[in-house]
Structures are given as structure tokens and as C-alpha cells.
Design goal:
Blueprint (H helix, E strand, L loop, with lengths): L2 H18 L23 E6 L11 H4 L1 H9 L5 E4 L7 H14 L4 E5 L3
Parallel strand pairs: 1-2, 1-3
């Protein structure tokens, strides 16, 4: 795959995440303003990826990894989050090690970031 399609996909993903963080009126959405889930089953959010997925380079990997930030900012309080990221994982390693575990929890939302 050439760099141009990859760059386009990454740019599209970044734009989508940026727009998802925007709310009408410019007010930030906080955990307190996100409603709890309805009577249905909890939303299951799964992160698959490498170092960035587990928060490499952040001061607090547990709270500052980008999938955790997305989960906290965008999903209802009743949602469940699993981070299956492995630092330094390649696409092949993620498919072999992370994907089976991620699919086993029957996710509704999957975020993928493999920068290797």
C-alpha cells in the first residue's frame, strides 16, 4: 500500500475524532453530561493497537491513552472498555494476539491504531 492512501485514511480518522469531540455551542462534553445507557446491554468498546494505544509517551498511561480518552469523553457511563494494545505490536502481531481476545468480548465499537 502506498503512503498516500495510508495518509488519507489517517487524516480521515483524525478529522473524524476531532469532529466527534465537538459539540454544539462549543461546550465540552464531560463525563457528568453523558447519560447512562438505557435499559439495553452496555456498550462494549475495545482498543487494538501498539504503543500509542497503551499510552506510550503520556504521563498517565491508564488515563491518557487516546482510546481511554475517547471512551471517557464520548461513551455513556454504563459502557465497558477493554484495551488490548501491546507496545510495539505490528499488524501481524495484533491480528494474532489482540484480535482473538478483542472479538471474544463481542465489542460494539473497535478502535485500531497500529503505527508500526
Amino acid at each position: 500500500m502506498s503512503r498516500r492512501p495510508v495518509a488519507s485514511v489517517l487524516l480521515g480518522l483524525a478529522a473524524t475524532l476531532l469532529l466527534a469531540g465537538c459539540t454544539p455551542g462549543g461546550a465540552a462534553r464531560t463525563a457528568a453530561s453523558i447519560p447512562a445507557t438505557s435499559d439495553g446491554p452496555a456498550i462494549v468498546d475495545v482498543a487494538v493497537g501498539a504503543s500509542e494505544t497503551v499510552g506510550a509517551g503520556t504521563g498517565d498511561r491508564l488515563r491518557s491513552a487516546w482510546p481511554q480518552v475517547l471512551y471517557t469523553a464520548a461513551l455513556p457511563r454504563g459502557a465497558v472498555f477493554y484495551n488490548f494494545g501491546i507496545p510495539g505490536a505490528t499488524v501481524a502481531e495484533a491480528i494474532g494476539a489482540e484480535l482473538p481476545e478483542a472479538l471474544a468480548v463481542h465489542p460494539d465499537l473497535v478502535t485500531v491504531w497500529l503505527n508500526v
